[in-house]
Amino acid sequence: MNEPKLSERFWTVPNVLSLGRILLVFPILYLFRYPSMRTYVFVLTVIAYATDFFDGMIARVFHCQSRVGTLLDPLGDKLLAVTLAAVLYIRQEVPFMFFVVVASRDIIIALGAIYAINMYRYVFLPLVVGKLTTFSLGLFYCSLLFEKTPWASTLSWLPGANRYLMGGVMGLVLFSGLAYVVNYIRYFVESKKSS
What we know:
single chain
């Protein structure tokens, strides 16, 4: 496996968007304390997940992928995903198993990435299934948060749809975690053979 060629620059548009996503976690977490602010939580969550789409697109289109970005982008994704899973579980809007599945996957991915960086100076780029999982989680979170806004008061079908969506997302999260484990093991085995 060849390590991708990445810029050493920090202040790029994709990195600023990733930083913005990380910072948005704090007002989202704060506003969750107030049920009357659910609309603002929904809007901020939509913005946060939109930054994930745009930072990746800009990095690819304008060839400004950076080493820092390969860390900031997944950090923002995982911080947002686990924070929302934890808060929604505490508010009894998702089951404990949902939180466990999301948090376990992200811990596994983070530990594998840290090990690769420390032992091999190798930075893993996201898998396609990982990007799909992030998109699906974002869609589910936004839909679930939208459900509690005044805008969704006439959508009686939405709670049922969100339950089905949650089941599908949990399955995808599990599959994604397994795919990362297989990818890590394959890389570590090949690295030991070549050393």
